[in-house]
Amino acid sequence: MGLEEKVPSGLLLTSVEKLVNWSRKSSLWPATFGLACCAIEMMSAGGPKHDLARFGMEVFRASPRQADLMIVAGRVSQKMAPVLRQVYDQMPEPKWVLAMGVCASSGGMFNNYAIVQGVDHIVPVDMYLPGCPPRPEMLIDSLLKLHDKIQHEPLGAKRAKQLGGVRRELVASSVRYGK
Amino acid sequence: MTEPKSGPDSGGSLPDQRRPAPAESAPGVVQRGSFGVHGPGDTSGFSGLVRRPWAPVPAERPYGEWFDEVADSLAAAYPSFDGGVSKVVVDRGQLTFHVQPEHLVGLCQVLRDDPALRFELCTSVSGVDYLGTPDRLHSVVHLTSMTYRRDLRLEVSVPVEHPHVPSITSVYPTADWQEREAWDMFGIVYDGHPGLTRILMPDDWEGHPQRKDYPLGGVPVQYKGATIPPPDERRNYS
After folding, report:
1. Is residue B9 domain-resident?
2. Per residue in A66-92, pLDDT tens?
3. pTM (two decimals)
4. Closest Cα in chain B to A108
5. What is the CATH number of domain A3-176?
6. Of A19, A166, B46, B119, which has fewest CB within 10 angstroms of its CB?
7. A13 and chain B in contact, CB less than 8 A
8. For residue B215, what are the domain limits?
């Protein structure tokens, strides 16, 4: 269509935005944050039957500094909450959070003093996945929806327009949150 | 105890000693339901719960099975047995000694070291809250003898105004974290514990969650067009 038909074969024309978004979504490396029962389903989603490797996601990075997706798989207790926030803070931008299972989305069946009623009280969540636990196929479905979201993320001038000129100050967290 | 007890299951399927003891009238009311909601229309989900007042029946000699042997060995090895052990309960084939707090460590030492007793494994130290009784907080120690393949229970009751129980970590080091959990959840202070800090809740938490008068701590759950309060705040819909 248009220009691509006239140039020699083997050339692809795209926009920087589409290319960057495509590369971000095709190798989205999850950080290991399996807390409870949902972690079992997450592990089996990485296993051979439901394969996450076909999406480039089989490398669950143990270090948050090398990961871009945090799959919070399981219930977060009050004691674990600051640890979760610290791991999230250690991930470099761009990063996304997937709340896997009902406990991460809303506290699940544990409506009590010990469990945080949804990790969105602690970290900003991009995708909520209900289920107790969600089947591996459901996890893959949510990941594909997240891929779709990442692919259509505006960048550049479009993004600036969307954010309305609001810029986040780049202050080091050691300064922002005190020592 | 060789004569069969008349209990709810007197069909003879259980051996005699293992039937539950007959319910004795104890001070306190049988509580049905929970969270103060009674009768039909209870939406808390706890309407079928029945809580009978705590009523351990003191056992009479002969206790049966190997219980007499253990009681006699303990009395021989620990001179203050009559002052230390306030009650012996045999129920459902299990032996329980109700112990005065100041004698707990001495009894544990003897139970562990005496050749006839040799309860060398402490499987659990846990807390119980019997709300409504005077000495409300109980610290329950479960001991197991591997050499003789026996289990034993020691129970210490303390009031909530002065919840001090001596720590048995000097005798059974495994009780360390178990006692930390009982402190965290019930507020039982173990004197002589190497480091009594919270273990399950965050360090700066206030209150002891597993006491019976501690609220559930739930949040109201929002649905489209309705909000359901947590179970302990639901009212009776009739």
Report:
1. no
2. 999 999 999 999 999 999 999 999 999
3. 0.80
4. B221
5. 3.40.50.12280
6. A166
7. no
8. 56-233
